[in-house]
Write a structure and sequence with these properties.
The chain is an alpha/beta fold and 377 residues long. Helices cover 34% and strands 28% of the residues. It is built from ten helices and 16 strands. The N and C termini lie far apart (55 Å). Bound molecules: flavin-adenine dinucleotide (FAD).
């Protein structure tokens, strides 16, 4: 490892080892490319910044039908039981008056520490290198040498290709001065609790989490409980809201976490020079439900293949943008529209109650995922 003045050169530098970065590293290594992942955390996946609901292959391929034709992705989705935790086959949505609407789900309540660790181990077993406790801090453009140098707390790097897998705040894009970064950031807080005895994924709407929602995701003996609140409703501290919510349900809190969910939709282009953004860094979270793990995995695989094809001389990196758009753009656009409608109409408990009752089970189901909540919208 070079810590002197001359940066270490790698074929592909991946910044971040969440699901997007590890999947990209896995696929790149499998295709025979030299890949280094730098991860600022000491341990991959710790601390989690997530509700920890992992979509099963059925859930993902229903949402994004084009991936059904991708045997690599289907095989990759074969996660071992110990990583997946509790199967969640039911979601319940609660109105402010606690009227409930339920529908089927195909997901798992997992531990991101184990899930992300598993994906990172798989990438390493394919030949990728992951360096933890290594944080990207600066990107320096050395014009005379026609290169960008990626400076970390533990050495500097140059690379033929870079993958921005650094999550919601897209640090590579930020440090390179790009304005095309994910927007609509929703602040969230969550905690791990005991004392919860339901086995469905529950969502609560209304003043418990204005402009957002509260969730309970069971994961075996414990559950992940959280809330996301729209910026202009941050009058009460998020932690206070969460404590009150858990208190009301008689839950015992053991630890807290939090993070940003980019709900603004896909960036205009996920390719910027030789840098490809994946997952949250490309704004691929589903705006109406905040889920992004599945899209991070899909985009990580596509980015890796676009890089490989480009290296082999066959195609332009912009093919990556094209396949993202073909696979996910429509769904993400509809999902964003649902979220915007929700923000427009559900301004208080009364209007939220009325809107949810009007939509009913089917409309709510469609609004939560990526289908039009009503035929006319
Ligand atoms: C509270 C909360 C609840 C959520 N709940 C769910 C859910 O239940 N289900 C779901 O599907 N999605 C959920 N999401 C969204 C989901 O967490 C993300 O969509 C998903 O993790 C995106 O994966 P990623 O690989 O793009 O980025 P991330 O998983 O965020 O990984 C980014 C990685 O980059 C590293 N990194 C960042 N900056 C640097 C740097 N400068 N140098 C080196 N490394 C860096 C980070 O440490 C991190 O490991 C939730 C998000 C939040 C905040």
């Amino acid at each position: 490892m070079s810590k002197g003045s001359e940066p270490e050169h790698r074929e592909v530098l991946v910044v971040g080892s969440g699901p997007g970065g590890s999947t990209a590293a896995n696929r790149l290594a499998e295709l025979g490319m030299d890949v280094l992942v730098i991860e600022r955390r000491q341990t991959v996946g710790n601390p989690a910044q997530c509700g920890e609901c992992i979509p099963a292959w059925g859930e993902m391929s229903d949402a994004f039908p084009l991936i059904k034709k991708d045997p690599w992705l289907e095989g990759y989705w074969n996660f071992p039981d110990h990583v997946l935790g509790q199967y969640l086959e039911w979601m319940r949505l609660y109105t402010p008056s606690m009227k409930e609407y339920g529908f089927e789900l195909d997901c798992y309540g997992a531990h991101r520490l184990q899930f992300d660790g598993h994906l990172a181990d798989r990438a390493v077993s394919m030949g990728a290198e992951i360096r933890t406790s290594t944080e990207l801090r600066k990107v320096q453009n050395q014009r005379k040498l026609n290169r960008e140098v990626y400076r970390t707390n533990d050495g500097s790097f140059t690379a033929d290709y870079v993958i921005d897998a650094s999550g919601a705040l897209a640090h590579v894009g930020r440090l390179r001065g790009s304005e095309d970064r994910p927007g609509g950031q929703l602040p969230t807080i969550y905690c791990q609790v005991t004392g919860h005895d339901s086995d469905s994924f529950d969502i609560f709407m209304g003043s418990v989490a204005p402009g957002g929602y509260a969730w309970i995701i069971p994961k075996g003996d414990i559950a992940n409980v959280g809330i996301g609140v729209r910026y202009n409703h941050l009058d009460v501290p998020l932690k206070q809201r969460l404590d009150k919510f858990c208190d009301g349900l008689g839950l015992t809190i053991h630890s807290y976490g939090g993070g940003w969910i980019p709900l603004g939709g896909m960036v205009k282009s996920a390719v910027n020079d030789n840098v490809l953004s994946v997952g949250d860094a490309a704004g691929l979270v589903m705006p109406s439900n905040g889920g992004g793990i599945g899209q991070a995995i899909i985009s990580g695989k596509y980015a890796a293949e676009a890089i490989y094809e480009n290296k082999m001389g066959g195609s332009s990196l912009s093919d990556y943008d094209n396949i993202l758009k073909k696979t996910m753009a429509k769904q993400l656009r509809i999902s964003r529209r649902s979220k915007n409608l929700f923000w427009t109409f559900c301004r208080n408990d009364f209007s939220t109650e009325v809107a949810m009752r009007l939509l009913g089970t089917n409309g709510l189901r469609r609004a939560v995922d990526c289908r039009r909540p009503l035929i006319i919208i």
